Amino acid sequence: MTNQLLRKKSLELLRQESEDSSLKRSLGVFDLTMLGIGAIIGTGIFVLTGEAAAGTDHALGAGPALTISFVVTGLACLFAALCYAEFASMIPISGSAYTYSYSSFGEIFAWIIGWDLILEYAVGNVAVAIGWSGYFKNLVDGFGIHLPGYLSAATGTPMVELPSGLWVPISPAVEATYGATLATFPTETALINLPAFLITIAISTLLYIGIQESARVNAILVIIKLALVGIFLFYGIPHFAPTTYWEPFAPNGWKGIMTGAALVFFAYVGFDAVSTTSEEARNPQRDLPIAMIGALVICTLLYIAVAAVLTGMVPLSVLANEKPVAEALVSVGENNVALLIAIGVTLTMPTVLLVMQLGQIRILYTMSRDGLLSEKLSRVHRRFATPSFATVIVGLFVALLAGTIDISVAAELTNIGTLFAFVLVAIGIWILRVRRPDAPRKFRAPAYQVVCSLCILICTSLMLALPLVTWVRFLAWMGLGVLVYFAYGVRHSKLARTGEL
Asked: What sections of the protein cross the membrane (predicted)?
């Protein structure tokens, strides 16, 4: 039984599978880099930076030291990216960390990390869709178009209609603003977050049509997104007053910095999804390392700049909301720029959803091809050369979740799932350096013992900074995954049928 659980895929077998892939190889280094930037810059910088700086009901804020939080998280992701880049240069297969674990640890560990990635990408998609929904609703509200309360939030959320006609969730801030008069306002319970549901369906349709078409749309939106960051910095820097707003710099000390880092880690989630496009890249062993590391470095520098300006131009209390960038600009009188940013974010944030949904579909496709999940999930459309059935299933599943759950739950589950994957990838690189030093590698992580050790250390520290309830949900999901593996995967494994260990 132990041999069954620890059976491994050889590097030679994985390379052969890559050569035999039925997916269309159409992505170059520019496309891959744009996918990386499109995945990274989104909900994290435009939505979560405010909460990470100001704090929430259950988490301390980093304050202006959010810049250090981004440095800590950026270093963790850089070390992880170096490990991913080495694996991608060795194993150009769509399975990302799942496939890497299959060759390093064995099937049971590959299943565990694959199941973990399903969680990471699913709830990541959900968090992005919900974050986009918030910006969309605020944008249309500004034009006097108010969605009904029952179509505006997660299922079961109590909603109230303000005198302006705007429906909002009932919160302590709303209660404090309106006091006893709040009881006289119309109320209702939300049934579904309709904008989040619909944007997910739209992205799924694009991914169904083709990877090249998706990459083109992504590249256009990423260029617009980078311009938005530049516009914010251009108009924000004149209002930068660190002597006023950076005292104290770290109001909650190192604990606040690490808590902030654990939260804004979500801002980096997605660069690893680029590795799931290996079988659709023209030269994956060369282009994937360049794209992943390049996208990460560019985005980290932009994140640090935005965090510094954002926390240095307004009090932290202004940032404690779901649209901190726009609110900060409004508070310093840049209303037109804030409107431009809101429109731009609404238009471009779906790139994150596109890349993360792309990643989840490719993970399911690869696990299905290995026999660990239903073979239907690895069916490729004859005309579009995309995993059509997996695309439909993922689209419907994510759309339903996005319409019914809360963003904070989704973001924290994404973070712990991603960090766990990073730890296993770092351990996997170390194992293969020792076990297969002769394996062809077009990219080698420098000083791999140091890189892997720091990746494991920082990622583990960030995991420990997450709330206990997140750990409980994560372990419950992983426990369910083990049951599914022994009920289905272990008996249908393609590797078991071929007898190769």
From this structure: 27-48, 68-87, 108-132, 190-210, 217-237, 257-276, 288-317, 337-359, 389-410, 416-434, 446-465, 471-488
Tokens for 76, please give them. Answer: 């963790």
Domain count, the chain: 2
pLDDT of residue 3: 64
Q: Which amino acid is at 500?
A: E
Does 241 fall in a domain?
yes
Q: In 171-302, which ranges are E strands?
A: 187-189
User: Same domain, yes or no, for 123 and 177?
Assistant: no
Asked whether residue 151 is domain-assigned, the answer is no
CATH of the domain at 459: 1.20.1740.10
453: domain range?
Answer: 27-144+194-439+448-493
pLDDT at residue 501, rounded to an integer: 43
Looking at the structure, do residues 335 and 478 belong to the same domain, yes or no?
Answer: yes
pLDDT of residue 227: 93
DSSP letters spanning 352-419: HHHHHHHHHHHHHHHHHHTTSS-GGGG---TTT-S-HHHHHHHHHHHHHHHTTS-HHHHHHHHHHHHH
Scanning 250-283, the segments in alpha helix (DSSP H) are 253-264
User: Would you state the structure tokens that stand for residue 408, as one six-digit string?
Assistant: 């904070």
Which pTM was predicted? 0.81
- The residues, any chain, with a CB within 8 Å of residue 431's CB and separated by 6 or more, are 104, 105
